[in-house]
């Protein structure tokens, strides 16, 4: 990336990815972690904003509130470490990743790799890091992502409006990340029956742990 004659590059994208993630991990204490190992001929790519949040659970239910908060039910975090390795954190109540007893998942389906690489294009600021993927493949992902990406990564959403006893109108907003979902479907992820049967409550934010609803309040 160049800006007014300066060039900026990340020396270690994986290190930056983990650093970014660690800043918000206090709210992700309950997430399960597994390692994805890419066994296909296509490589994982990494962007300048590599720790990607997603939420298939809420996406499938067309939930109108934010999907990507660190406390949110169904949250997933994808962090590429190298062309062949990726860490994933996920809500174990909402998903089954591969074999329950195994911490490592071998990916042999290139369609899975395409979707995980697309996440990087959707989430990046300006730079994509890659080694051997061909230009045509990268251009395809870039054009597809361009149709979905938003310049502004956050939005304000009105959640409550009322008139008080003095006749003054009050409007409450929350700031939330744009839910740039694309109906991702990875072959190694399944949804447990309790999650399939779950009925969402009326809150804008669906929490994994209801005790977090009062987090930070005194």
UniProtKB/TrEMBL annotation:
Pfam families: DUF4238
InterPro entries: DUF4238 (IPR025332)
UniProt-recorded name of the protein: DUF4238 domain-containing protein
């Amino acid at each position: 990336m160049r800006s007014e004659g300066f060039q900026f590059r990340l020396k270690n994208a994986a290190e930056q990815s983990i650093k970014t993630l660690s800043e918000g991990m206090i709210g992700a204490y309950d997430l399960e972690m597994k390692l994805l190992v890419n066994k296909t001929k296509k490589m994982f790519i990494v962007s300048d904003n590599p720790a990607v949040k997603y939420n298939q659970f809420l996406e499938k239910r067309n939930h109108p509130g934010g999907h990507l908060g660190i406390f949110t039910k169904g949250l997933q975090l994808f962090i590429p470490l190298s062309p062949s390795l990726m860490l994933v954190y996920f809500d174990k109540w909402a998903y089954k990743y591969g074999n329950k007893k195994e911490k490592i998942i071998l990916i042999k389906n290139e369609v899975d790799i395409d979707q995980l690489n697309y996440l990087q294009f959707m989430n990046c600021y300006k730079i994509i890091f890659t080694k051997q993927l061909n230009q045509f493949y990268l251009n395809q992902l870039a054009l597809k992502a361009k149709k979905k990406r938003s310049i502004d990564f956050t939005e304000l959403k009105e959640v409550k409006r009322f008139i008080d006893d003095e006749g003054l109108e009050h409007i409450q907003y929350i700031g939330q990340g744009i839910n740039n979902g694309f109906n991702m479907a990875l072959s190694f992820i399944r949804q447990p029956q309790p999650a399939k049967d779950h009925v969402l409550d009326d809150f804008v934010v669906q929490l994994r742990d209801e005790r977090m609803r009062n987090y930070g309040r005194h």
